Amino acid sequence: MEGGPPRGHIQRLTTQEPPAMGESSAEAVRAASSAVLAIVNPVARGGRGAEVWRRAEPALRAGFPGLEFAETTAPAHAETLAAEWARRRPDGIVLVVGGDGTVHEAVNGLLGDGAATGPLGVVPSGTGNDFARSTGVPLDPAAAVERLARWLRSGPARAVRRIDVGRLTFRDWSGAARTRLFLNSVSVGVSPTANRIAQGLRGVVPGPLRYPLGGVAAVLSGGAELYRVTSGGAVRFEGEALNLTIANGPTFGGGLRISPGSSLTDGVLEQVIIGRLGAARALLALGRLYGGTHVTMPGVSVTPVREALTIESVGGAMLAEADGQEFEIEGPLTVEPVPAALSLLA
């Protein structure tokens, strides 16, 4: 906007309007005393994020009179903004207006150095929105904003849920040591290839169709790889797999129920292996992901993960996908549960 702050600048918004959405004056004062940052991805789902923010801003400003906000301008920018906020206001609230990728970045910024203790709120405006789906946040942005309003109206009894995350440790293709947190799941095999194909279909295929089409293309173009999974000195799995997912939540890829029994509040991850399948059975498994019934198919296994495990590919290098984000890995990938690491506005 001409004459306004540059995009990415954290701007403080104030309002002199009376308490809104049914708050009492005392509740409004309590809300105002909380430091709140809204991180907005304006290009989420092809620009939908900007429209969601435009509609949500008045209600959020009324509910959080001291609201500050910043728009992301590039990949990883949400992480930078959240990290800066965590250092400045470690007990402050962060509201993310965006999809799974934006939430993934923000959580890594907030929890990366362990400084942040404040809760996270989400107004989903992405393509997949699996984190919102798995935690009961309404997928409709207006309903999500109203949910935040109800949280404000609850006064001193405002509930905060503790959410599990997973931690990845690996070296990227340049040899640099990396640590990342994930919310939904991490996968190697067909899923990262499908995600890459789906990203390439942006602007060509509508968002809800990109993931299944990417999955079909990945299944038809790829095959099983040899993996070895170990934990505590024991071999958990060794053999060929079409896809290997470590799930925190039940869904990925915009509602595909890769691990239907998973919960983000039980302190446990799930290892989901889709073994070597022919093209026809692989496509059948892909179709059954929508209902989560693939887990009953021969060649598919689901086992709990309560401690760190290590995934190795016979080929050495792996392409991994976590929360829609792509990582190129050289050597082993270590995955571990981090119970109750994140606070979520309930």
Topology:
Layout: E1 11-12, H1 25-33, E2 36-40, H2 44-63, E3 68-71, H3 77-88, E4 93-98, H4 100-111, E5 120-124, H5 130-135, H6 141-153, E6 160-171, E7 177-182, E8 185-189, H7 190-200, H8 207-221, E9 225-231, E10 234-247, E11 269-275, H9 279-288, E12 300-305, E13 309-313, E14 317-322, E15 325-330, E16 333-345
Parallel strand pairs: 2-3, 2-4, 4-5
Antiparallel strand pairs: 1-3, 6-7, 6-16, 8-10, 8-14, 9-10, 9-13, 10-11, 11-12, 13-16, 14-15
Helix pairs in contact: 2-6, 3-4, 7-8, 8-9
Supply the key terms.
single chain; 346 residues; alpha+beta; Rossmann fold; Tumour Suppressor Smad4; 2 domains; five-stranded mixed beta sheet; 9 helices; 32% strand; globular; disordered N terminus
Concise overview:
The protein is of the alpha+beta class and 346 residues long.
Account of the protein in words:
The chain has helices spanning 25-33, 44-63, 77-88, 100-111, 130-135, 141-153, 190-200, 207-221, 279-288; strands spanning 11-12, 36-40, 68-71, 93-98, 120-124, 160-171, 177-182, 185-189, 225-231, 234-247, 269-275, 300-305, 309-313, 317-322, 325-330, 333-345. By secondary structure, it is of the alpha+beta class. It folds into 2 domains: 11-158, Rossmann fold (3-Layer(aba) Sandwich); 165-340, Tumour Suppressor Smad4 (Sandwich). Strands 6, 7, 8, 9, 10, 11, 12, 13, 14, 15 and 16 form an 11-stranded antiparallel sheet that branches. A 5-stranded mixed sheet has the order 1-3-2-4-5, with helices on both faces.
